[in-house]
Amino acid sequence: PAEAIENAIAQTPKQRLGKPEEVARLVRFLLDEKAGYITGAVYNINGGWYM
Question: What backbone phi and psi angles, to 5 degrees, belong to 7?
């Protein structure tokens, strides 16, 4: 699996793996009342792998 990780990093425009904190920031926002009108959306947190 080390090779698979290296391949994933090489294919990601940010050239690194994501951090749990980066996903948590979006989750925190979506749980906030400021995001109360957001429904049925898909958020790709992938360093620009696909947009």
Answer: -65, -40
